[in-house]
Inverse folding.
């Protein structure tokens, strides 16, 4: 200690002690015991985390499934549009989705987001513009046997 200092307040005097740099902090009573979480606190935190995950996970899965269904609808629409454009431009229907890619009506063969494969159910039909009644690609459908959230089969999209 460097000593006492006197401070005059009103008619009385107040003693103020000054401390050196090594004694400037009040000792913490918890500094001698270990700091940490009790088992009960950890169990409560884990319970809250489990509840939050059990609510968030189904919502996440529904949103992922909805996104896949939306991408499937868009891919089918684009391929059907390309079939129509090909038929109008060339005067005949394409023989497969690969013909659409080769003729640059599609940049690449789309992926079926449900099955995650480049495979499509190619519906062939009689080409009305062909004089020899040849068959050509009429429609494209998903190969997935599953159903969407509303119960409609992906094969019916």
């Amino acid at each position: 200690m460097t000593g006492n200092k006197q401070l005059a307040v009103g008619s009385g005097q107040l003693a103020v002690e000054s401390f050196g740099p090594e004694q400037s902090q009040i000792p913490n009573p918890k500094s001698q015991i270990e700091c940490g979480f009790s088992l009960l606190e950890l169990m409560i935190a884990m319970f809250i985390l489990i509840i939050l995950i059990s609510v968030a996970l189904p919502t996440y899965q529904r949103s992922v499934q909805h996104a896949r269904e939306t991408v499937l609808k868009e891919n089918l629409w684009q391929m059907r549009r390309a079939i129509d454009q090909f038929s109008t431009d060339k005067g005949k229907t394409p023989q497969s989705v690969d013909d659409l890619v080769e003729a640059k009506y599609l940049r690449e063969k789309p992926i079926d987001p449900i099955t995650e494969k480049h495979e499509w159910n190619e519906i062939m039909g009689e080409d009305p513009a062909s004089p020899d009644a040849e068959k050509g690609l009429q429609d494209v459908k998903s190969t997935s046997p599953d159903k969407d959230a509303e119960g409609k089969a992906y094969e019916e999209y």
User: Anything to note?
Assistant: The first helix runs from residue 39 to 90. The mean pLDDT is 84. The CA atoms of residues 67 and 113 lie 9 Å apart. The radius of gyration is 38 Å.
